Amino acid sequence: MPPELGLVTAVLAVSTGAILVRWSDAPSSVAAFYRVLFTTLPLLPVAAWRYREDFARIDRRDLGFATLSGVALAIHFASWFESLEWTSVAASVTLVQAQPVFVALGAWLLLRERVTRRIAVGIGIAVGGIAVMSLGDFLGGVLVGPAPLYGNALALIGAVTAAGYVLAGRSLRQRLALVPYVVVVYGVCTVSLFALVLAQDNPLIGYPPREWAVFLGLAIGPGLFGHTVINWALGYLESSVVSVSLLGEPVGATILALALLGEVPTRFTVLGGVIVLSGIYLTTTGSR
């Protein structure tokens, strides 16, 4: 399959994530837990059969950073899934996709990476778009969702923690093979989400077949055909091309929400989303 076609397939697959979460009647933490669990389970036999020596070479320091990365990924999924209960699909997906902005900020603060003028302008534009999206609907009195400001804040937490996951992976992937790294991080993420489900006293069983189909859909669609194919495409395409193409996820999710959920975004959500995506584009291409 040509990598360009694979990338288009991946963007379409990840665009379904928010819709599947909305279709689920299970608690958001349960849906997040099963998404990561069902994505991780098929990797375990491969990891045990082909990468046993790679696991043995992981030192304590790298294991600690991988654990932090897994916890950050768990917070990302939990906060983003919950945000979809309170705000529109368009706002939630656009805000959580702003993680390149926070990656750039984190790389500057923590890794001392240089911030170019293009990146700085992109960050400023994205922040302005976030303000328009979050405050415009509230001040205009036209809201989509029971508590849009709360939902938008949760989506931003998801973006920040996703950035932490990316920054940790940027360092660890230089020393660890892909499968061992992913299995450790996903394993920690699964355990963290399991603890959250127990803390919230949410049931793990007793759901109708429709819910299990949604859980599997989250793992197969956005997980297998989405992020897995994206990682495969990175072996053939420039990272800047892949990163920019992911800006299609908010657009795709918004169109699907309109067609399948009847959710019409407000003018401030559309305007703010365009501004945010423009800022993300500048930030991503500026750090090529």
Automatic annotation (TrEMBL):
SUPFAM superfamilies referenced in this protein's UniProt entry, alphabetically: Multidrug resistance efflux transporter EmrE (SSF103481)
Q: Where is the EamA domain?
A: 5-134, 150-284
Q: Which Pfam families match?
A: EamA (PF00892)
Give GO cellular component annotations, separated by semicolons. Answer: membrane
Question: Which residues, if any, are the signal sequence?
Answer: none
Q: Which UniProt keywords apply?
A: Membrane, Transmembrane, Transmembrane helix
For this protein, the parts annotated as crossing the membrane are: 33-51, 63-81, 87-111, 123-143, 149-167, 179-200, 212-234, 241-262, 268-284
Q: Which domain of life is it from?
A: Archaea
- On whether Transmembrane helix is a keyword of this UniProt record, the answer is yes
Q: What is this protein called?
A: Permease of the drug/metabolite transporter (DMT) superfamily
**Has keyword Membrane?**
yes
